[in-house]
Design a protein that fits this description.
Radius of gyration: 24 Å
Helix content: 25-40%
Number of strands: 16
Order of helices and strands: HHEEEHEEHHHEHEEHEEEHEEHEHEHE
Distance between the termini: 10 Å
Number of domains: 2
CATH topology of the largest domain: Aminopeptidase
Number of helices: 12
Bound molecules: zinc ion
Length: about 425
C-alpha cells in the first residue's frame, strides 16, 4: 500500500454537504439550475476552495470554470478532471457535484502528500450539463469539444426567453479564455452511476468502458377504420392489435442482446382515436441502445423484421422512420486501464460498466483520451431529491480518481510516505 495515495473522506463529505446547502430543497435535494443565483453561489464557493488549495482559476467564453494545479512541466497539456455543479429542478446532492468536489479532494490530497506531478492537473466544472434550463444538455462540454459552435450555445434561450449569453453575464460567469482549441492530455470524470447495477451486484466501483450507441425510430402502423359493433373480427385490419404484436415481438428479439441491448417503446399515439372505432393509424416510438455499433445495427435489423412480419401476418401497412442516432463512444483503453489498475491496487470490488446516461465525458471522449469512475447510488435513484450515496463509496471512487490521475500526470512524492 506504500505507493498508494489516499484522500480524506471526511473532508470531501463535509464539502459535499456544504455545497448541498446552496439551493437546498425542503425534500432534502438541491435545486441549482444553470447560471442562476444558486449556481453563481456554487461556482463562487468552488472557486474559493480551489484558490485555498493553491490553484489558479479561470473561466472560458461559455462559463466553463477551470482550476489549475501547476506541474513540474508547465508546458505539458494538463490532465483534466471534472463534472458539473448545476442540477435538475428537483435534483440530488451528488449528481455532477460529486465529480467536481472529488476532483478538488484529489488536489487537496496531492497537496497533503506534497506530491509533484510532471503534467499540470486541472479541474473543470462544465456549464449547463443538465439541460434543465437551457437545451441541449452537456452544453459547455459540447462547445469545448467542438461539437457545438459557441455562437449557437450563446443564443440558446430558457423558458423565459433569456439567452445563455445574457445568463452568463447576469451570473458573472462569462470569461475571456477561448473555449475551443485547448490542449488536454486526458480527461477523468467521477460520477454516481444513476442506475441500480452496482448496488445490486454489491460492487463498490464501476470501471466505465464508454457510452452506448442510441437510435430512435417512429413506427407508423396503418389499418382500416371500421365500426366496433358491426365488423366481424376476421374482417378487421386493426392497427392497435398489430402494434401490440409488434411490441411483444420486438421485446422477444431484443432479449437475444441481453444484458447490454436495451429497447423502449415510450410513446404510443392512435390518430383520431375513438373507443368504438377500430384503430386505423397508430404511431409508436422505439429507442434502442447498445455499447457496440455493430450490435446496434443487428438490433435495428431485428426490430424492422419483427414489425414487417407482424404487419404482413395481419395485412397492415408499416413504415419505420429513423429520427435520431448517436454512435457508441468507447473510452480510451489506456485511461480505462489506469482506472482499473487503481481499483485493483486499492482492493475495491469492481466491474466494467457502460454509461447508460449522457455525461460531459461523452463529449470529451471524442476530443481527448477519456475515462470515468462510477460509484453506486442508493436504490439506483438519481434526478430525484432522495438521491443518495454512501460515504465509503464516495471515498472509494475518489481514491480511484486520485491514483488514476496521479499516474497519468506522472506523480512524484518527495519523502517516503
Ligand atoms: Zn451528472
Amino acid at each position: 500500500m506504500k505507493d498508494l495515495l489516499q484522500i480524506d473522506g471526511a473532508r470531501l463529505w463535509a464539502s459535499l454537504m456544504e455545497m448541498a446547502q446552496i439551493g437546498a430543497t425542503a425534500g432534502g435535494g438541491v435545486r441549482r439550475l444553470a447560471l442562476t443565483e444558486e449556481d453563481r453561489r456554487g461556482r463562487e464557493l468552488f472557486a474559493r476552495w480551489c484558490r485555498e488549495a493553491g490553484m489558479s482559476v479561470v473561466t472560458d467564453e461559455v462559463g466553463n470554470l477551470f482550476a489549475r494545479r501547476e506541474g513540474a512541466n508547465s508546458h505539458a497539456a494538463p490532465v483534466l478532471m471534472g463534472s458539473h455543479l448545476d442540477t435538475q429542478p428537483e435534483g440530488g446532492r451528488f449528481d455532477g457535484v460529486y465529480g467536481v468536489l472529488a476532483a478538488l479532494e484529489v488536489v487537496r490530497a496531492l497537496n497533503d502528500a506534497q506530491a509533484v506531478t510532471e503534467k499540470p492537473i486541472e479541474i473543470c466544472s462544465w456549464t449547463n450539463e443538465e439541460g434543465a434550463r437551457f437545451t441541449p444538455a452537456m452544453l459547455g462540454s459540447a462547445v469545448f469539444a467542438g461539437a457545438m459552435p459557441l455562437a449557437d450555445a450563446l443564443a440558446r434561450e430558457d423558458a423565459e426567453g433569456v439567452t445563455l449569453g445574457a445568463a452568463l453575464d447576469a451570473c458573472g460567469a462569462r470569461g475571456t479564455r477561448p473555449v475551443t482549441g485547448v490542449a488536454v492530455d486526458a480527461y477523468f470524470e467521477a460520477h454516481i452511476e444513476q442506475g441500480p447495477i452496482l448496488e445490486a451486484n454489491g460492487t463498490a466501483i464501476g470501471v466505465v468502458t464508454g457510452g452506448q450507441a442510441i437510435r430512435w425510430f417512429d413506427v407508423t402502423v396503418t389499418g382500416v377504420a371500421a365500426h366496433a359493433g358491426t365488423t366481424p373480427m376476421r374482417y378487421r385490419k386493426d392497427a392497435f392489435f398489430g402494434a401490440a404484436q409488434m411490441a411483444l415481438e420486438i421485446e422477444r428479439v431484443i432479449a437475444r442482446y441481453a444484458p447490454l441491448g436495451l429497447v423502449t417503446i415510450g410513446q404510443v399515439q392512435v390518430a383520431n382515436s375513438s373507443r368504438n372505432t377500430i384503430a386505423a393509424n397508430l404511431t409508436f416510438t422505439v429507442d434502442i441502445r447498445h455499447p457496440d455499433d455493430a450490435q446496434l445495427d443487428a438490433m435495428e435489423r431485428d426490430v424492422r423484421a419483427a414489425c414487417e412480419r407482424a404487419a404482413a401476418s395481419r395485412g397492415l401497412g408499416v413504415a419505420i422512420a429513423p429520427c435520431w442516432t448517436s454512435p457508441a463512444t468507447p473510452f480510451d483503453a489506456q485511461c480505462v486501464d489506469l482506472v482499473a489498475q487503481a481499483v485493483t491496487a486499492l482492493g475495491y470490488s469492481n466491474e466494467r460498466i457502460v454509461s447508460g446516461a449522457g455525461h460531459d465525458a461523452i463529449h470529451l471522449a471524442r476530443y481527448c483520451p477519456t475515462a470515468m469512475v462510477f460509484i453506486p447510488c442508493v436504490d439506483g435513484l438519481s434526478h430525484n431529491e432522495a438521491e443518495d450515496a454512501l460515504p465509503e463509496d464516495v471515498t472509494a471512487g475518489t481514491n480511484v480518481l486520485l491514483n488514476a490521475v496521479a499516474a497519468r500526470a506522472g506523480v512524484r512524492i518527495a519523502a517516503a510516505a
